[in-house]
Amino acid sequence: KLLIEANGVSKQFANGTQALKNVSLTVERGEVLCIIGPSGSGKSTLLRTLNALEEISEGDIQVNGHSVHNRKVDLNRLRTQVGMVFQQFNLFPHMTALENVMLAPLKVLKQPEAEVRARAEQLLAKVGLADKAQSHPAQLSGGQQQRVAIARALAMKPSIMLFDEPTSALDPEMVGEVLEVMKALALEGMTMCVVTHEMGFARAVAHRVLFMDHGEIVYQDAPAAFFDAP
Ligand code: ADP
Ligand code: ADP
């Protein structure tokens, strides 16, 4: 069964910019997609329409069989199903790493605190930050903050994770540690859509690479075919 099914999606911003033109896309459970293409080609807009952070002008997007651009959609429920990691980590500065990871399951899902705490500790360990649970974001490197942001998204037990240029704001020496965490997630079978300029990652981890240009998916194929084409 398809996890994401987008059909004929177009997006025009209020200023007239046509960011997406008749884009169709399917994502299967367990699939890892990398979306590449020049700046301004619509990659980020496409990703943001998948969890209704951005409205669409035309078309339809289904996540888990539910239309997400629909007045009846339960946005809280959708956002638990679709985790997102941004270029800027967007952690709450006054909260510890652990509190950042615990916040949404406590406030949105209203799960019991002991359970949420235990899971948050596990997730911080999983991203290699067991010893930073009590640190505040300002005490963490960019790479560490981004790993906390990944743990925070995973705390909602999403069925898919969206990554919007997750390493673009990082100093070069921190890119690898974030990509390693993402690679481990992919190997566990997490469904992922990753907008990235990291071609090594796309080649090694993606099942399918999409190339966007001027608001359209102009080419998509397995990474071997994509990168090794003559
Ligand atoms: P990419 O992620 O590939 O760099 P984007 O999806 O960010 O591209 O942008 C696609 C196009 O939409 C670009 O022309 C960009 O300038 C435009 N755009 C993005 N966000 C907005 C916005 N909020 N208002 C108007 N135009 C926008
Ligand atoms: P799950 O996949 O978590 O088992 P289901 O798809 O069986 O959930 O849906 C359970 C209930 O929640 C159904 O009534 C379904 O219509 C509703 N539902 C699931 N996802 C959404 C969503 N994103 N927006 C609105 N309702 C939803």
UniProtKB/TrEMBL annotation:
The keyword Transcription regulation does not apply. It comes from the Bacteria. SMART domains: AAA. CDD domains: ABC_HisP_GlnQ (cd03262). One of its GO terms (molecular function) is ATP binding. It holds the Pfam family ABC_tran. One of its GO terms (cellular component) is plasma membrane. It is a peripheral membrane protein. SUPFAM superfamilies: P-loop containing nucleoside triphosphate hydrolases. The keyword ATP-binding applies. It is found in: Cell inner membrane. Residues 4-230 form the ABC transporter domain. Keywords: Amino-acid transport, ATP-binding, Nucleotide-binding, Transport. Belongs to the ABC transporter superfamily. This is Peptide ABC transporter ATP-binding protein. The lineage of its organism: Bacteria, Pseudomonadati, Pseudomonadota, Gammaproteobacteria, Nevskiales.
